[in-house]
Design goal:
Elements lengths: L1 H12 L5 E2 L4 H7 L6 E9 L15 H24 L5 E4 L10 E2 L2 E2 L9 E2 L4 E2 L22 H8 L6 E4 L14 H16 L7 E2 L9 H6 L4 E4 L3 E2 L3 E2 L5 E4 L2 E2 L9 H18 L2 E7 L4 H17 L4 E4 L1 H9 L2 H5 L4
Parallel strand pairs: 1-11, 2-3, 2-15, 2-16, 3-8, 9-10, 10-13, 14-15
Antiparallel strand pairs: 4-5, 6-7, 12-13
Length: about 350
Amino acid sequence: MQIKNFLNKLNFSLGNKPRVLPHSKNVRDRFIPHPYRTVLIISCDFELIWAWKFAKEINCDLAKARMRAAEERENFSLVLELSKEFNIPITWATVGHLFLESCTNEGGLPHKDMPRLSYFKNKYWKFVKGDWFDGDPCCNWQNALEWYAPDLIKKIIDSGIKHEIACHTFSHIDCRNKICPEEVFRKELQKYKEVASKYGIPLKSFVFPGNLIGNVKVLKEEGFASYRVDKDILGFPQRDKYGLWEIPTTAEIGPYPYNWGLDYYIKRYKTILENASEYGRLCHFWFHVSTDREFLKKSLFDLFNFIDKKREHIYITTIKDYVQFLENGNFLKNRTQL
């Protein structure tokens, strides 16, 4: 671990992590709107208990999962307030069940209409017994704040900031083809669209839970335009074989996998953004709302303050709005004057 730690820091110091992908000026000019030097996207995974109930990190302990969800609720207000203070839009990758004000148990089975995954393990989760929806209290949201969040979703909508809510599946499943049958994935998307439609939310962006990618063809068929790809690069989006935009990440905001100290991480994020401006690349930070509160409080404040002071050079946007910019051809029109 110490060797990896050293090599990671060394690669960052040498400018190799995140890697700056080579592109010609003509390619760069297609993706960075005039007169900006870089595009900045910030996305966060908003999940509450759904990310934790089968998590290996807590040994699938439901009591610990509830505790993590309660902490995430507290962090949510912090993130939303900081985004408003500095006028920073965020793409909120949100689990669909959080939209519900209540749900019911039919014949001893929560969400009877939803097809289930078979048992599986991956590097994050261990689902080896029971039912995928075990623990769902099937009650009013006010009596189970870890499982539902219509109040928080309304706060995002009413915040006055042009945030985006992106689909993160209805119940936080592993979407890979070898784990998730097509019919399960399709139903997760359709259920999500059903619950989100009551809030008037247009869904165009998708974020795979655990960044575990699969069933992409179904995304296209269900009307999505893009999905996040965990690449840790300074580069540009690209279209996949289905015509969907792959939106690469640049760096995760959080104290892992190495305990380098908060000040070092903050310096790292600022340097990454400066490199994005220097080379004219997309910078995409992402994080979990469940990340340690003190880390989020200090790192987001310092980073957002840094962004705010340089915003004349930074095109700050959401995934949906950036994809719309790419698809409407404005970048071509804007560049005729250069």
